[in-house]
Amino acid sequence: MADVGTICNPERSCAIVEDDGLQAAFTVAHELGHVFNMLHDNSQPCRELNSHSGATRRVMAPVLSSLEPGQMWSPCSARFITDFLDNGHGRTRHGGVPPPEWLRLPSALPGSVYPLLRQCQLAFGPDSRHCGDLQPPCAALWCTGHVGGRPVCQTKHFPWADGTPCAPGSVCMEGLCVGAGRVQELTVSPGAGGMVGGGGVHPPALV
């Protein structure tokens, strides 16, 4: 949950996001998009801007499920944030550029830090385990759970975390199992972090 276009308001430049596993990062991106003045991709102002784009699974979709690898932001999102910043909202209150230490990110991919068991526990609770062989490796994270007291396998439509081992000498990247030699190429590409998803539990609607 976030207000739209409030990045320069110290009392409203924030968002509320439920931590439901590693995929919460994409919900954070969605809500920060609102703070930077982006609308949902199906809103009236966005329909014409997005009409020539065949892809509909973008970060600012009203329901965040599987995203287009390499095309995570829609033309409408690009237009709205560009206009917002060009109109003067990109100036910082403190002036200048943030110190470099603010921008440092971990170099390890999340899947190399969080094994499948932990990814399931973060998404579905401490008793959850990985359900194997429901889809090709990396395509969607399926985990155990209970519905009406009965054991089930469930998914939130997100792939295994990038860097998760999926075969000897291979890891997951953008929902695919690729040779470790391709990891460097994909992590520096503009589309790194894209996703493909599966089916199962309906993802949450976003506001």
UniProtKB/TrEMBL annotation:
Active-site residues annotated for this sequence: E31
Classification lineage: Eukaryota, Metazoa, Chordata, Craniata, Vertebrata
PROSITE patterns: ADAM_MEPRO (PS50215)
Highest taxon of the lineage: Eukaryota
Keyword Hydrolase found: yes
Family annotation (Gene3D superfamilies): 3.40.1620.60, Collagenase (Catalytic Domain)
GO biological process, one term: integrin-mediated signaling pathway
GO cellular component, as recorded: extracellular matrix
InterPro entries in alphabetical order: ADAM_Cys-rich, ADAMTS_ADAMTS-like, ADAMTS_CR_2, MetalloPept_cat_dom_sf, Peptidase_M12B
Protein name: Disintegrin/metalloproteinase
Pfam families per record: ADAMTS_CR_2, Reprolysin
Residues noted as binding Zn(2+) in the record, renumbered to the chain: H30, H34, H40
Residue span(s) of domain Peptidase M12B: 1-87
Protein keywords: Disulfide bond, Glycoprotein, Hydrolase, Integrin, Metal-binding, Metalloprotease, Protease, Zinc
GO MF annotation: an example: metalloendopeptidase activity
